[in-house]
Write a structure and sequence with these properties.
Blueprint lengths: L10 H15 L3 E5 L3 H10 L5 E5 L2 H11 L17 H7 L6 H4 L9
Parallel strand pairs: 1-2
Helix pairs in contact: 1-2, 3-4
């Protein structure tokens, strides 16, 4: 889950709501990306979240650790603002990343 940059005055509340949903679905492992995702982490801590939470400053830092943590049968949700470039994580975990240019946004040389 990445920071959501377009929430304006509802920024903190929106990130806290994500933490609430994580608690509801009983996710075992949550990767967070971006500075505002720290709000999610703090809310999970406050709610005594039982799973593991790992925070990264950027999607580039998160790509390989996420790839290495995935197990067969895992359900994965990738969500975040364009500002944190979550498509880089999707590319890393795709079964066929060679098709990324056809399937993902922001894959040209101007987006690196």
């Amino acid at each position: 889950m990445g920071s959501m940059a377009e929430l304006g005055a509802k920024n903190d509340a929106g990130h806290r709501e994500v933490a609430e949903k994580i608690m509801e679905v009983r996710a075992d492992l949550v990767f967070l990306v971006g500075i505002d995702a720290k709000i999610i982490q703090n809310e999970l801590d406050k709610r005594k979240y039982w799973g593991r939470v790992i925070w990264f400053n950027t999607s580039d830092e998160a790509r390989l650790p996420i790839q290495n943590a995935i197990l067969e049968g895992d359900m994965i949700l990738v969500k975040g603002s364009q500002a944190v470039r979550m498509e880089k994580i999707v590319k890393e975990i795709m079964a066929d990343p060679m098709n990324a240019e056809k399937l993902l946004v922001r894959q040209g040389p101007n987006w690196d």
